[in-house]
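Action item from last meeting closed. Structure (422 res):
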């Protein structure tokens, strides 16, 4: 009875346009009420889920990303990317992907990446003759790299849910993130040649010196952040604090593009951006608890065991489930609901936890660029002033999923660096 109420109310609320977080919270409360459990459990679950030292890294990395966008770091990273790949076929689109790789090493936020670079590069691509759909597609797709290459807010949340070392997750994401970035650049190259998209003039090496020199302080940010984590000198949360301090130093002292009056808007944007994932986590904990008490987890596990005893088939099924779920449910919510259900099976199948984590995270990020609810897709489409269904996203989805399947077959893509550091 409780499970029927939970799932039925959740689906009905989604169909009526209710946000995923609100739908999880309301349906969870209804299920617990029908099951006769005290409603005080709701407050306990919500507060307990966000009362986490690890999750403190989330607002700090968001704060750092906002400062970087407003403090001139993003512009300088775009400048470096332009002088190195702007002359390739689809030059400005190539710049978008490479700059996303740079930005990913500092902010950990795919949303911040899509918004900051999109406002600059999507209009510029349109002026150069790129299709609006392609411009929005490459921007939204490349932004997903921000959640794969560390530091990653998504990995911080995943680690808090599963008790897996966030530092190990960060190490595991480096190689897959770089491969995804290279794959997207190859897609841009192929489409640009076929469609005749323009490229910038070749930049002589002597003229590349100043853009690189001016961006060195910004490019050192990933070294500072990740070096502290991987060396064991800092926790991910402490690294987030360092990222904020360093971004403020660059914005106020080095680049001098920040003024004291900018701090209030920066703080307001940070609070607004932080509230969304935190509320999803809190609501997801109530929904997850309701799923547990209703026996949904055991039903799902029994079904998967009955379907297959092959770990490769299991992971393909998981990828398919997350792809379908990602069409309708926000990625963080999907992760909070289903990852705890799958984790006992991961151990039973003998699958490496880091390999499974990267496959889930990348598949979830694909959900953020597919209609109808992809967040990065909405951001890029809004900037380009087109419908989300006109965004040319599917070539990038295809290459990303192809790389994900390679990770299923060759787990060393994920486990090589963490194993080396051990």
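Sequence:
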């Amino acid at each position: 009875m409780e499970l029927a109420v939970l799932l039925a109310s959740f689906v009905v609320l989604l169909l009526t346009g209710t946000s995923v977080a609100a739908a999880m919270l309301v349906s969870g409360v209804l299920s617990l009420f029908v099951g006769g459990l005290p409603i005080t459990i709701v407050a306990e679950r919500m507060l307990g889920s966000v009362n986490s030292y690890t999750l403190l890294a989330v607002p700090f990395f968001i704060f750092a990303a906002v400062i970087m966008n407003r403090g001139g770091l993003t512009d300088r990273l775009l400048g470096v990317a332009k002088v190195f790949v702007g002359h390739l076929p689809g030059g400005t689109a190539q710049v978008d992907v490479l700059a996303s790789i740079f930005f990913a090493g500092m902010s950990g936020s795919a949303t911040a990446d899509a918004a900051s670079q999109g406002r600059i590069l999507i209009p510029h691509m349109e002026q150069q003759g790129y299709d609006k759909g392609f411009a929005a597609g490459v921007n939204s797709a490349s932004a997903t790299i921000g959640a794969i290459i560390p530091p990653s807010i998504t990995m911080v949340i995943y680690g808090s849910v599963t008790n897996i070392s966030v530092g190990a997750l960060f190490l595991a994401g480096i190689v897959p993130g770089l491969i995804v970035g290279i794959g997207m650049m190859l897609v841009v190259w192929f489409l640009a040649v076929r469609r005749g998209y323009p490229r910038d003039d070749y930049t002589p090496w002597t003229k590349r010196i100043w853009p690189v020199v001016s961006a060195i302080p910004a490019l050192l940010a990933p070294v500072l952040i990740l070096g502290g984590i991987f060396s064991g000198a800092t926790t991910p949360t402490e690294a987030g604090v360092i990222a904020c301090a360093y971004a403020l130093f660059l914005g106020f002292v080095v680049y001098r593009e920040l003024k004291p009056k900018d701090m209030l808007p920066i703080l307001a944007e940070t609070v607004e951006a932080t509230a969304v994932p935190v509320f999803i986590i809190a609501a997801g904990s109530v929904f997850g608890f309701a799923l547990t008490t209703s026996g949904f987890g055991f039903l799902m596990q029994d079904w998967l065991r009955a379907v297959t005893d092959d770990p490769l088939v299991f992971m393909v099924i998981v990828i398919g489930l997350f792809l379908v779920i990602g069409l309708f449910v926000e990625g963080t919510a999907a992760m909070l609901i289903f990852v705890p259900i799958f984790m006992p099976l991961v151990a039973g199948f003998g699958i490496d936890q880091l390999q499974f984590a990267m496959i889930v995270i990348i598949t979830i990020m694909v959900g953020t660029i597919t209609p109808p609810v992809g967040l990065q897709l909405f951001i890029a489409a809004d900037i380009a002033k087109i419908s989300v269904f006109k965004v040319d996203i599917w070539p990038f989805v295809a290459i990303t999923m192809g790389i994900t399947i390679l990770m299923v077959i060759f787990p060393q893509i994920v486990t090589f660096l963490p194993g080396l550091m051990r």
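Note appended to the action item: The two ends are 48 Å apart (CA to CA).
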